C-alpha cells in the first residue's frame, strides 16, 4: 500500500463516486465527517487487501468495504445510546434486536457473511452468486440456507 496509490484512487472520480454512493445510504444516520472517515478507512483496507487475481473489480470490493465501515460506525454510534427498534421490519417477537445485532451475528456466526450480503443487500440470484464464485447456484442456495439456519438459532 503506497501513498501514491491512495492518491491515485482519491483523484479517480469513478472510484470516489462509487465509494460515496455506497456511503450515501447512511447519510441520515451518520455525519458527513463519519461518512468521509468510513470511505477513507474502506479505501485503505481495500488497497491493502484487494487481490488483483480476484475476479471482483476493485470498485466492487471497495463498495462492499464502505458498506461494512458505515455499518461498523453506526454500530459504534448506537452503542452510545442511539439504538432503535426494528419492530416494523422483523416483527414484535424480536423487537429487542437491532440491525447492529444482526450485522454482528452475520459477521461472527455465519460461515460466509458475504453470501448473506450478496443475497439480501445486493439482491443477487443464487446463479449470479455461484457464477461469481465458480460454483453452481444450487451449492450457493445450500450455503445461504445453512447460514440462515444459524441466524435463526441466534435470534430465537
Task: Describe the fold and architecture.
- This protein is mainly alpha-helical.
- It folds into two domains: 1-82, no CATH class; 83-156, Arc Repressor Mutant, subunit A, CATH 1.10.10.
- It contains nine helices and no strands.
- The relative contact order is 0.09.
Task: Using brief descriptors, characterize the structure shown.
mainly alpha, single chain, globular, 73% helix, 156 residues, Arc Repressor Mutant, subunit A
With helices defined by DSSP (H or I, 4 residues minimum), what is the helix count? 9
Whole-number mean pLDDT: 80
Protein structure class: mainly alpha
Q: What Rg do the Cα atoms give?
A: 17 Å
SSE string, helix = H, strand = E?
A: HHHHHHHHH
Helix content: over 70%
Tally of discrete structural domains: 2
End-to-end Cα distance: 43 Å
Strand content: under 5%
Amino acid at each position: 500500500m503506497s501513498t501514491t496509490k491512495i492518491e491515485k484512487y482519491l483523484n479517480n472520480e469513478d472510484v470516489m463516486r462509487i465509494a460515496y454512493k455506497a456511503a450515501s445510504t447512511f447519510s441520515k444516520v451518520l455525519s458527513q465527517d463519519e461518512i468521509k472517515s468510513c470511505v477513507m478507512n474502506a479505501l485503505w483496507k481495500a488497497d491493502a487487501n484487494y487481490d488483483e487475481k480476484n475476479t471482483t473489480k476493485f470498485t466492487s470490493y471497495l463498495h462492499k468495504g464502505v458498506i461494512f465501515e458505515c455499518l461498523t460506525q453506526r454500530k459504534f454510534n448506537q452503542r452510545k445510546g442511539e439504538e432503535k427498534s426494528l419492530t416494523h421490519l422483523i416483527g414484535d417477537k424480536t423487537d429487542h434486536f437491532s440491525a447492529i445485532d444482526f450485522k454482528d451475528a452475520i459477521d461472527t456466526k455465519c460461515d460466509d457473511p458475504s453470501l448473506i450480503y450478496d443475497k439480501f443487500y445486493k439482491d443477487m440470484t443464487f446463479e449470479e452468486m455461484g457464477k461469481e464464485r465458480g460454483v453452481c447456484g444450487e451449492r450457493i442456495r445450500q450455503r445461504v440456507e445453512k447460514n440462515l439456519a444459524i441466524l435463526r438459532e441466534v435470534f430465537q
